[in-house]
Amino acid sequence: MNNLRGIYIIWYRDLLRFWRDKARLVTTFVMPFLFLVVFGTGIASSMMRGSGGSDFDYIQFIYPGIIGMVVLFTSMMTGVSLVWDREFGFLKEVLVAPISRTAVAIGKALGGATIATIQGLIMLVFIPFAHVSPSIGGIITLIAVMFVFALSLTSMGILIASRIKTIEAFGMVAPLMLFPLFFLSPAMFPTQYLPAWLGIVVKFNPVSYGIDAMRQAVLGSQQSAMFGIHLFGFRMPIILDVVVVVMFGIIMGTLAIRAFRIQE
Amino acid sequence: MTKIIEVEHLVKKFGDLVAVDDISFAVEEGEIFGFLGPNGAGKTTTINILCTLMKPTSGRATLNGFDVIRQQNQVRHSLGLVFQDPSLDIRLTALQNLKFHAFVYNIPGAVAKRRIEEILRMVELWDRRKDEVRNYSGGMRRRLEIARGLLHYPKVLFLDEPTLGLDPQTRNHIWEYMLELRKRENITVFLTTHYMDEATVADRIAIIDYGKIIALDTPDALKSMVGGDIVTLKTENAEAAVVEIHDKYNIEAQYDGAEVFFEIQKGEEFIPTLVNNFKSGLQSISVRRPTLDDVFMKLTGREIREETGGPTVMMKQWAMRQTRGGGGRFR
What we know:
Number of strands of chain B: 15
Largest sheet of chain B: 6 strands, mixed
Strand order of the largest sheet of chain B: 6-7-8-3-9-10
Largest sheet of chain A: 2 strands, antiparallel
Largest interface: A-B, 24 and 28 residues
Shape of chain B: elongated
CATH topology of the largest domain in chain B: Rossmann fold
Radius of gyration of chain A: 19 Å
Number of strands of chain A: 2
Number of domains of chain A: 1
Strand order of the largest sheet of chain A: 1-2
Number of domains of chain B: 2
Structural class of chain A: mainly alpha
Number of helices of chain A: 10
Strand content of chain A: under 5%
Structural class of chain B: alpha/beta
CATH superfamily of the largest domain in chain B: P-loop containing nucleotide triphosphate hydrolases
Radius of gyration of chain B: 23 Å
Oligomer: heterodimer
Helix content of chain B: 25-40%
CATH architecture of the largest domain in chain B: 3-Layer(aba) Sandwich
């Protein structure tokens, strides 16, 4: 019972901080806008020229990838916030409180995942630019996928933050994790035309499945949904994508709780 | 009386460094127990072990009857902490910080509301309760932390250098409240400090140096370890003064690079005799009652303050000692 209270209050504090930090909400729009409208238009127009016109709608394709990017990067902020809490001493207040460290880690992961999901949802304002028309069911699926995906990533953030204890070091390591996870996924390009070596790396990246699931949820039967991950010659259905993400989440969550418990 | 804290053969090593070196002591319920020693003596490490933030290398400790290693949750419920370093969420308001604390410590909503107001008024932050803590000055943050540590009426309140950087008025105010709360709620206070005058509020004081407890007694008993009043002189020729005092009165005076000093019973009565025919160029002379500083000096041969070093610092300390009101002063 006490642990539930603990999880709740840790989660609540992170949301409270998020709500108070409105500047963060505004800056959230900048990168996705640049990627979708500028980068997307640029690549799409040069692709048209190269292939002499094609049915492949690049902007439609990368839109779910950009939502995935937002969720990925926002989730990693949970790790950052943990390192900040340590630096500013607030973590001590939490660690000496009568709530178990497991509850603290879970509350933190849930808080970060909630924020990342909200940030992802905000990306729906770009729908008019993205040539997509998701169904209500698709959006509900998207929210669920985003949350599960975010939870596995915030767990990973907590795991890293339990080991890397200074802001400076975390600032070095986080991009080294994030950019490979992002670029070695189907977020920005279809994967079935990749050279074999790159295609294999993409398939070993758990983030790929999260983004693929989000793409299938947003695009539904729209054409770009066809470009997805193929394992053993079969197109991954959304449900299997989610299973991979959940498994990744369970591993990360377990490791994160363990790492968080043993730190002094 | 029950023992609220019991520590037996506690050891904490960090690699080769022995931060806490086999200490044992007990604290009675309702007592104010002081831990006095220079920075790096092992005070904070001991507190961290007692409040479950660190595991000892060996030895055992109980708090409120609970083992600090095996019954962490019960221990944590029994204690409140004011850390040496800040531990507030500076992005939240004072009120939000306290509400968070009240929730975590399971204080029912209505009680929490009343106590938060009471305590914020006590530390004079009620008017600023809706400001983000990052806009607070250092002293205000300190006050808020103390308020937070008291909010759940802990059985034991740990204060790690609690009033560092506070002005004397606020310090007195906070102490008044803590002493009253102690009476009302029977709170035990465990205090670490290197402020001498703060340590004297303690019922008993443990003096700690290099991880070991070198003395443990009431402040008065500790002071009586020093053999009388302290007479301090500034002279033109310190070495000559030491020899002169020895030859004339058979007293072993010491010279610490800035001042010559010695202990003597009834110092005020001795000064006229000394001054009357002093040959080594007397510049100033003072006499004062022994302080815990002197006790520490007596036990270790060093001053307790870490800054002790250059003559200027010593001069400053000397001047501070005078203004804090030791005794008469002649020029």
